[in-house]
Each structure stands twice: as structure tokens, then as C-alpha cells.
Design goal:
The protein has 118 residues and is mostly helical. The chain has one domain. The protein is 83% helix and 0% strand. It has 4 helices and no strands. Helix 1 packs parallel to helix 3. The protein is elongated and about 45 Å long.
Length: 118
């Protein structure tokens, strides 16, 4: 699982930079792509933290946090990027789901810290 999270974090960082470049060079909706790029980078870094913490043996809270971040990155940034590329409002329908998963991931990470590291 750690290898998957590190790989997704790397791909998320790559996608974040690519969205920044798309904003600058393709004339797409800069606001949406900027938000998507920032959240991708933040959660790529958070996923690396989850992977580092999991080296000590990951509990359920870390697994929940990791997968919430992974799926949240796809749903949130993917929805915003799709809307920026197509202009279709429903393309961003997955964005609230992604945002909710981000919050659940942060909550699970906090739970892991409170319970696992007393």
C-alpha cells in the first residue's frame, strides 16, 4: 500500500504542475485549474506523509486517510479539470465528493495521531 501511495503522490504532483502549465498555455479556466492544481499538490504531500507514517505498520485510520486522499484527488481535481476543459457545469459534479473525501482523510489522519501516537 505504501508503494501505491507514493506512486499516486508522485503522479498527483506531476498532474499539479501539468495543470499549472495548462492554465498558462492553453487558455482554459485559470481559476478552476489553479484550485485543482493547489489541492492536488497539498494532498500529494499529505499522501507522502501517510506513506511515511505507514512504515511503522499502518492501522485502519492511515489506510482510510490514504485512500480518501487518493480517491479525493481524482474526484476533486478531475472534476474541476474536466469542467475547465469542457465548460460543462456537470463535469464538476464529483468535486463535492472529492472535497468530502479530503476532509474525511484529514479526520482519519488526526484520529491516527490521537490514537496511535499517545
Amino acid at each position: 500500500m505504501i508503494r501505491i501511495w507514493i506512486a499516486v503522490a508522485g503522479l498527483g504532483g506531476l498532474a499539479s504542475v501539468a495543470l499549472g502549465a495548462a492554465t498558462a498555455h492553453l487558455g482554459l479556466d485559470a481559476g478552476l485549474l489553479d484550485i485543482a492544481a493547489r489541492y492536488l499538490m497539498y494532498h500529494s504531500l499529505a499522501l507522502l506523509v501517510v506513506a511515511l507514517l505507514a512504515r511503522d505498520g499502518s492501522g485502519i485510520a492511515l489506510r482510510v486517510a490514504g485512500w480518501c486522499f487518493v480517491v479525493g484527488m481524482i474526484a476533486f481535481a478531475g472534476g474541476l479539470a474536466a469542467k475547465a476543459a469542457t465548460g460543462w457545469p456537470l463535469a464538476a459534479a464529483s468535486t463535492p465528493i472529492g472535497g468530502t473525501l479530503f476532509m474525511l482523510g484529514w479526520l482519519a489522519l488526526a484520529w491516527h495521531g490521537a490514537v496511535r501516537h499517545r
